């Protein structure tokens, strides 16, 4: 249905995806704010969640390091991933090279439904830190740009062996995301963020001082109607969820 293409895009300028377009807009805004005394630094990282294991997509191909999600502090809602490669981004053109490197490392495989199916969720993370020389204010924010693997029906995907385990992990994590969305919409006292690596990683983006935008991709083919209906029902559930209003927080 084109989820990865939506996020990453193609080689042509007019086919740029959400990740390069978002970074381009951030640099344009940063340049415009220089006149008001603001300077910004950007650090990018890129990871995938494969079978509930974190993989560094910008690290060495043979990287065997175990990555974990941890909170910055006991009283902080911010999280970080241990031993994750971070790249200083000083120009929007760098993103193309980062996407290319990540693409060679990401887990993909053929199924009966897709010749090149994503077997993991990928998350492009951009840490933005700003300081103002006029007012001595400072600010920090994390942008997560996520490409979710699609849910699969085993009867259609024909997944067996390793593909079967991948499908089960994908579907389980997507169910966990749905449960989090439902809990947030109902304003439950407990939200099960830690039920999956995906929801734990995205906790700061789904709760508290944040904004979230979700695209739902559907296939136009008639034989995918059941998947389309399932996706649209999930989209309706997401659209009914309110996570609050993001606030500007600047320190000195």
Main attributes of the structure:
five-stranded antiparallel β-sheet; two-stranded antiparallel ribbon; 252 residues; 21% strand; 9 strands; alpha+beta
Walk me through what this model shows.
It is a single chain. The chain is of the alpha+beta class. Helix content is 34%, strand content 21%. Strands 1, 2, 5, 8 and 9 form a five-stranded antiparallel β-sheet that branches. Strands 3-4 form a two-stranded antiparallel ribbon. A two-stranded antiparallel ribbon has the order 6-7. The chain starts with a helix and ends in a 13-residue tail after the last helix. Mean pLDDT is 87; it is low at 110-116.
**Helix proportion:** 25-40%
**Cα end-to-end separation:** 46 Å
Radius of gyration from the CA trace? 19 Å
Mean pLDDT: 87
Count the beta strands.
Answer: 9
Characterize the overall form.
globular
Give the topology.
Blueprint: H1 3-8, H2 18-33, E1 38-50, E2 53-56, E3 69-71, E4 79-81, E5 87-89, H3 94-105, E6 108-109, E7 117-118, E8 121-132, E9 138-147, H4 154-157, H5 162-185, H6 197-201, H7 203-206, H8 225-239
Antiparallel strand pairs: 1-2, 1-5, 1-8, 3-4, 6-7, 8-9
Brief overview:
With 252 residues, this protein is of the alpha+beta class.
């Amino acid at each position: 249905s084109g989820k990865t293409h939506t996020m990453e895009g193609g080689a042509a300028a007019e086919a740029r995806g959400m990740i390069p377009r978002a970074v381009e807009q951030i640099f344009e805004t940063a340049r415009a704010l220089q006149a008001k005394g603001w300077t910004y630094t950007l650090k990018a990282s890129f990871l995938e969640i494969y079978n509930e294991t974190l993989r560094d997509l910008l690290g060495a191909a043979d990287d065997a390091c175990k990555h974990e999600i941890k909170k910055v502090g006991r009283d902080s809602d911010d999280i970080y991933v241990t031993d994750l490669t971070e790249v200083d981004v000083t120009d929007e053109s760098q993103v193309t090279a980062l996407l290319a490197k990540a693409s060679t490392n990401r887990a993909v495989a053929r199924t009966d439904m897709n010749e090149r199916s994503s077997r993991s969720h990928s998350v492009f993370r951009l840490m933005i830190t700003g300081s103002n020389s006029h007012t001595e204010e400072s600010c920090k924010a994390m942008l997560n740009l996520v490409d979710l693997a699609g849910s699969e029906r085993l009867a259609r995907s024909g997944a067996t062996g390793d593909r079967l385990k991948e499908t089960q992990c994908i579907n389980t994590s997507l169910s966990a995301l749905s449960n989090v969305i439902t809990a947030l919409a109902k304003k439950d006292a407990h939200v099960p963020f830690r039920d999956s690596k995906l929801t734990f990683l995205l906790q700061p983006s789904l709760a508290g001082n944040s904004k979230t935008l979700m695209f739902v991709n559907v296939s136009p083919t008639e034989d995918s109607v059941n998947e389309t209906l399932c996706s649209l029902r999930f989209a309706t559930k997401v659209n009914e969820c309110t996570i609050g209003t993001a606030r500007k927080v600047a320190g000195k």
